[in-house]
Write a structure and sequence with these properties.
The protein has 421 residues and is of the alpha+beta class. 37% of the residues lie in helices and 21% in strands. A 6-stranded mixed beta sheet has the order 1-5-6-4-3-2. A hairpin with a 6-residue loop joins strand 2 and strand 3. The longest helix has 20 residues. Keywords: DNA damage, DNA repair.
Length: 421
């Protein structure tokens, strides 16, 4: 299929419909918080939150290793608690950015300050309940004693739109209202004090646990050698799992034969357009991000297009991902999962255009799921990698000349006069 034919088909796809839904900007955080306060008043009895159901936990990173660790509860939505936990299902639902904000601002974070290190045998008290919630395979009924009322901040400014979080309350105590169901593979990793964290993560992934489940378990300090188990801030755990599983998958495909032809895959979701160009050859990967003026990460409407890129060769990276951070590992995971299914390896260039429609950060989950799902359905093909990049550039907000200056993989392409326009 030619690229122009592929683009005509994509314009009528379900993904295009999802994008139109995401284009409707919404700044109604105040309404979400007001709704939460009303539900909270109806739910709380005295100074305790009874009958709540927790689908997940949160571990902060400020002042590490003395961190804020919390149990998240969708107050007033207990019957639907699982939908409030970030998962691949959010993509399948076709959530909008406003939907993401609504769910996150509806979660009460009942928290305590905790020392993140040496939590191997900490299964009592508030921390113990939090860890039980994290290792369970379904939302857990809990009773939380609150020390005062939740902090519901109705003075919402630009920072709140950029980083939406739900109300917070200091927790005096927490108790389980049921026995959590812990899957046998998780029990196995808990019982083995000699299993390093990387091996345990890959084991769970191979046993069918998605990275969302694994990063929650890692965050609760439930993986790794006994003496090394500690709480891992949520943001760090997400990147750690994507990176660790990605390295595992990369090692598995490096002996596979190469793909036979140049493939072009595309997806669009929540104001982000993704192009994945796969070319014959040994494994190589690069993510190039183009962030439009007026988008959340390039908010100045008068600024030019902001470009960022990171890459790796056959043996992977030796240093930190400087410019694209967690998006790099999330996008790489989606590509590697596809190549593993196909039993092949390839050179992979992922191009991400963040448009002005991306008015609030949904999280790296949307990068992961957009790339994962880019391989569904039709694809376009090109004669060469150079031809694919040239064709795709016609749909990008930057010229081929600009792309060559930023991209390692595109830098070697020959230029002609029209490429500078």
């Amino acid at each position: 299929m030619r690229l122009d034919e592929y683009m005509d088909l994509a314009a009528e796809s379900e993904r295009a419909k999802r994008r139109r839904l995401a284009q409707e900007k919404s700044y109604d955080i105040l309404d979400h918080l007001a709704e939460f306060q009303h539900r909270f008043e109806e739910t709380v009895q005295g100074d305790s939150l009874f009958g709540s159901v927790s689908p997940s936990i949160f571990v902060g990173r400020s002042n590490y290793p003395k961190v804020s660790t919390g149990i998240l509860s969708p107050v007033g939505h207990e019957d639907d608690a699982a939908r409030f936990e970030t998962s691949a299902g959010w993509y399948d639902e076709g959530v909008s950015i406003s939907d993401v904000f609504r769910r996150r601002t509806s979660l009460l974070n009942s928290n305590q300050s905790t020392d993140a290190v040496n939590v191997h045998d900490s299964w009592d008290g508030f921390l113990g309940v939090q860890r039980e919630v994290a290792i369970a395979d379904r939302p857990v009924s809990v009773e939380i004693g609150l020390d005062g009322r939740p902090d519901v901040d109705f003075d919402v400014g630009r920072d709140d739109v950029a980083t939406p979080t739900g109300p917070r309350a200091h927790a005096r105590s927490a108790d389980l209202a049921e026995n959590p169901h812990v899957p046998r593979p998780v029990q196995k990793t808990l019982e083995d004090d000699d299993w390093n964290a990387q091996g345990a993560m890959n084991y769970l992934y191979r046993r069918g646990f998605d990275v969302y489940d694994v990063n929650t378990i890692l965050s609760a300090g439930a993986l790794g050698r006994g003496e090394n188990r500690r709480l891992v801030p949520t943001r760090w755990s997400i990147t750690a799992v994507d990176d660790t599983v990605g390295q595992f998958l990369r090692g598995g495909i490096q002996t596979n034969p190469s793909i036979d032809s140049v493939e072009i895959h595309r997806n669009e979701f929540l104001g982000n357009a993704f192009w994945v160009i796969l070319a014959p050859g040994d494994w190589e990967f690069e993510l190039v991000e183009m962030k439009a003026p007026g988008s959340v990460w390039n908010p100045d409407p008068e600024a030019g297009m902001w470009l960022a890129a990171d890459s790796e060769g056959f043996e992977g990276r030796t240093g930190y991902v400087d410019e694209t951070a967690g998006a790099y590992h999330a996008a790489r995971l989606g590509v590697l999962e596809y190549l593993e299914r196909e039993g092949r390896q390839a050179k992979a260039l992922v191009l991400r255009h963040v448009s002005e429609d991306y008015w609030g950060p949904a999280g790296v989950w949307q990068v992961r799921e957009s790339v994962r799902n880019a391989f569904d359905g039709e694809r376009a093909e090109a004669e060469t990698f150079a031809a694919a990049v040239r064709q795709v550039t016609d749909y990008l907000p930057v010229s081929l000349s600009d792309l060559r200056r930023k991209s390692t993989m595109a830098s070697g392409l020959q230029m002609n006069l029209g490429d500078f326009s």
